[in-house]
Amino acid sequence: MNRRAYNPNIRKLDVPPIPRIQRAARDYAGPREEIIDLSQAVPGYPAPDSLMKALGTAASDPACLGYGPIEGEPAFRRAYAADLQRTHGGSVSSDNILITAGCNQAFVTAALSVAAPGQSILLITPWYFNHQSTLSMFGIETACMSVDASTGFLPEPDKVAAAIGPDVRALAIVSPNNPTGAVYPAPLIRELYDLCVSRGIWLILDETYQDFLPAGHGPAHDLFEDGNFESLIGLSSFSKSFCIPGHRLGAVVAAPALIGQMSKIMDNLQICAPRAAQVALAECLPALDDWRAGNRLEINQRAVALREALSTLPNWRIDAMGAYFAYVRHPWPEHSSIDVAERLAREKGIITLPGAFFGPGQDHYLRIAFANVTADVMGILAQRLQD
Known about the structure:
This protein is of the alpha/beta class. Helix content is 40%, strand content 16%. The protein has a seven-stranded mixed β-sheet with strand order 2-8-7-6-5-3-4, sandwiched between helices. Strands 9-10-13-12 form a four-stranded antiparallel β-sheet.
């Protein structure tokens, strides 16, 4: 009997979606520098000078070469807790913080902490594909409910309530959303949280793009005002806010008891998140508010530029937009979104992600990560799509 089989939960996963479409661009006949990569949310400019300097200093410090605390560097946890109180209000302490190697790892720790194989986590379709593949990888079932352009890709609480079956252990939402960019209003987040409390399940709130809310939006939500984090698991990332995706830093905000459970998982996954970046951000975080505001303004301006560019193309329609992403209906309903995305990459040097990667019923869409390119490139994009 041959028992050298692959784990069936891994074998059934699709290949990583972003490299799949990026590979299609290798056949683009134009110069490499003319490729317009709108596939992955990657800042197109470096971190602020003060952070770059602090990163270099911390990386060369022998004190950062050893293992650190599983939950994260104490100074960084304190600094981030204080930062959340400035941006969100309410009460957050360092005991509520777990630092992870990116937000995907934060979701892994959250999912494994609250759901066992055979139990379910409820995702909103279109979903962030790494959330669904994480659940599948660990044998956790994906319950789902769909939203569409008619509601601005926002879930209606009564329909969410109907989708919470007996095996559901958590509801996971992303705001600002990936892939649609839709921003969940603070009252909606509160209503969904209260629903989770009443049903005895967790709300997993992924706020990776929280620093790119429109100017004047106000706090993303008021959930930290409760102070007890009864049913809340907040997730976030420092990659986009500070242009350091390669340093892999994310965070969980939760009750100390749950942080304790997650620490068991972190000890098996990685032991501790990268230390030098934590030390550098702990030093720089309080002084970077103005830089973050400028970063947000730049990305918001790129959103305006994309909307203006696509307004010249009557067959293309933006159904949702926000933070880093636009969810765009392409003009070829007879073709799969994967086929459309691969042809755009090969023939036009435009790399987007097909809606099919984000769940069932999404084949009419492409996700455009507009934050990747400058405003002047948007005109070139529109010209190529017109051609």
